[in-house]
Batch of 4 targets.
Target 1
Amino acid sequence: AVDKNTGKILQVGAAARNMLGRTPGNVVAMHPLKDGVISDHEMTVKMLQALFREASKSSLFTPKPRVVICVPSGVTEVEERTVINAAMDAGAESVEHGAFFSRETLLRLAKTRTLWVPTLSTIGNLRGKGRFDEGAVQAILESALRNVDCFVKMGGLIAPGTDAGAWAVPHGIQTEFSLLRQALGAETDTLLEKGTAVIQRKF
């Protein structure tokens, strides 16, 4: 719910819906992000900032919220980049997964020092299971490995994750380290230490 005279967000989510019909005419409902596509970048950023504040306000010692954002598989690179940019503009400090990130998205992450947790094991653990075409899985994995290599060459911060959806969770971590070593070679431990240090400082 937004005050259209000032542009200020008054409420988000269910609280915003409950305001409809009970407030002055200058308060309107907006849907800046619908079906995974952003129609209003500025309002999406403001909405995310309000949600982040709501998630973090319970304690002075509550860490910044970890954010999971999904987009439909059929979105364009521009639409994908817009969603990620909105999250970063709103204050998200790390991004997890992202095997299909474009070079432009990787460059934005690197330039803003946004930590990337690529969770390669989400792809690697699909190999040899008979559920998907092995050639297709390998092609996706090789693309993700190239993205990791490209990202660190851009100066980006990277940390290990797992198919459990969080960094350093035991399930799948050996697969993750093995795949990261394929991508990063001899510099793997040094590069991961830098990213992991950032996580440990924040959490």
Target 2
Amino acid sequence: DTAGFAGDLPSGGGDQEPSLLLRPIHVAPDEAVAGTYVDNLIKRARSETERKNYKAAIGKFSSALYQDPNSIVALFGRGVAYALRKEWAKAERDFTTCLEEGPNADEARHSATTFYNRGVARASLRNIQGAVEDFSCAVRLSKNELDYYFNRALCYRSRNDWPEALADYEAMNKIQDEAQKLIDEEKRKLEAQMSAAAASQE
């Protein structure tokens, strides 16, 4: 799931250009951070996030972390809530804690979503190099997620790295083309199956 927000990046040239809009924070954790919840506190915190009550969500995630300071899920969730409030420095801190500190950091480093979200926070803080590094980690872990390429391309464009940005857009086209081929093939199979079923009833 995603929740929208606009994060603008500075243009690379001297002329003013329209703001570049980042793709949004990913709200739901992937499997690498979807471990055991701290019972009802985290469930309630995620419900508050879904209702866009981000301040309440932050409070509940913080309470969960007080009970279990090593909870990746609570750190991830609080980072998301901070990001959706555009408190980027606090969001970056929580995602960094997920990735670099505590006994569960090795597990979190398999989470493309956490790298991606930290990249969004870093880009919004104008740490473009840090954002590029995070989006690149996300791409290595999950090669078919369009948002990862899209945001990295925006970062490249913001510093006039045109070939790198173009390569990311071409990668996005390839992913979409392969997905369309798969869809077309499955549609052909379904149509053949429907035709065979109709013929058998005649």
Target 3
Amino acid sequence: VGLENVDYFLYTHGSNAPVIKSEIVDHPDVGISIPFTTAAFSVEGVSTTGTIYKSYAKTTAKDLYLGRKPSADNEISIGVSVAKEIGKDIGDTIQVELYEKVRDYIVVGLTQGLNDGGYSTAVTLEGANNHNEKIDTNGLAIRLKDGVNRLEFEKEMGKKYGSKVVLNHIPSILKSVFSSMERAIQISVYAMVLASAFVISIV
């Protein structure tokens, strides 16, 4: 779904957020850390969930369907649902509104993921800064090193930083999403069986 290779989305708050992020990046339990933030994008009038990474070079998400993630400030990847709705494909130029400023971007990749229903976008921090120079990547996509006890890591983060750090454990979120989907499918199948039985009984 696009989040399989990340352990946490970590968000920092407060005036000392840059210091906290630096400490977490250098933490001995952290294997990979990628600064990012999110924002609401409008792509050719279609509302999307936008992700802004300083660099996609270290990202390993499996949501890429075709093409690649953006690397230049005028490049963007968009969800397949967005592409179908606006009738655009890789290589096309699209207009994107972010922070009330509209710019042209070249589509370099198509993505798909259950977490956003295909309505996603991704640009570089350099590209987003063309809309707003004050954008801060207050989030970190984190993958812990092999063998690290995640519960101990979470406990340490909570004890040291308290409410200044929010940890979203991605595997737990995915498990919850898939469990909900499985339950919904079971209910749908049960309803179909009941409906079929009712029709048969009438006949």
Target 4
Amino acid sequence: VDGGYIDPSQVTYTVTRYPDGATVSTDQTTTAYSEAVAVPDTFTTYYYSVTAKYAGNSSEPANSNRVVLGDITPPYSETFDEESCMDGWTILDVNQDRRMWMWSTMQNLRISFNQSQAMDDWAITPAIRMEAGRVYRMSFDVFCDDPTTAERIEVKMGGSPTAAAMETLIVAPTDVRASIDEPLTITATITPVSSGSYFIGF
């Protein structure tokens, strides 16, 4: 470093947990850290930053991957303003055509069509806590890049973020011929038969 060398045994690390900003380890000499985190009452994204120190100098912090814990409690709204909005979402490419839902800088989720193979791809929400017997109203906007060619969307719900678990039909397969300037707003109601954590797949 700077024309010299470092002694790795003298490097220490400071680990900070977010979003609470708690310093969970200081002057650590190993490169691994773990801790048990209680599941919070609300949907929370956790990540860690690590700062290395050597001979009185500190590095810029490096951030870990992001992990979500806890359920979303309605009311819930997602506008996809930034890529971190995807925390907790599950993206599945079931037909393995390498086309899948992804966040766009246009502040939406989008997927490229496949001319030779039927689409079978899912964007599944994080866990949403719902109570038995309550009626939940949901709505979302959908559009096509080329509204002269119909696309089709279906919405289901399940108890885990997998394609196989998407067993409860929320929105039947619906053809879409709307543009970005005039998107189609689709509405539906959900009435769970039991209380628990549910995942909604598009």
